[in-house]
Specification:
6-stranded mixed beta sheet, 3-stranded antiparallel beta sheet
Length: 220
Amino acid sequence: MAFMGEGRLAVLDRTSKQSTAEVSQDDMTDKSSSKSGQQQDVLLVTQDGELTERLRAGFAENGHFAFRSLKGTAAGIEEWQADTALPTVVIIDLKAALPEDFAALERIKRARFAATPIIAVTNYLDQDVVRRLVQIKVDDWLPVESGFADLHKSCERLVRAPALERRVREAVCYSFLPAAGGSGNTILAIQAAFQLLAEKRQPAPSVCLVDLNFQDGAVA
């Protein structure tokens, strides 16, 4: 008998070093894409000039986001220290999905940009790339040749998603093994699951109760 509940992951905010990377910012509009009325902005990290100009033109025409670009790689954003607040959404071009790019993306996702939605774009997608993106827990993936409409739709969805839904959450597993038949193992597991659900904390807990006795399971 086993069940899984949500755990908590504490993330420390690390102070980054000064960077020599080239940063450009376009103040597009004060119009907001959120209900709060605050200005939303998108930071693009890439060495692809064509991608930068394509997104700059798209966001300028759309007017829902301010657009910034950082000329460099995923590793370069680790050393980037902005004088203002962090961007609302980050789009990172992983190019050929090199191991060092994934390592850098994982570090920034766990540190300063832990609460910032990140969209990864790559030239291709295979099993290894999918596995690494799932492990890092990026918020979305798109091919680098995607049109502006697809990238904009992803940004809008991530901005509107409640912050709690974007939190990094890990499952905690508890197992109940009976010493003998009729010892109350099933009752204990069920009551423990209900007790976890009754906890008053944020985010609200969710519990999955699994009966691994496939022959004489009694949970149902």
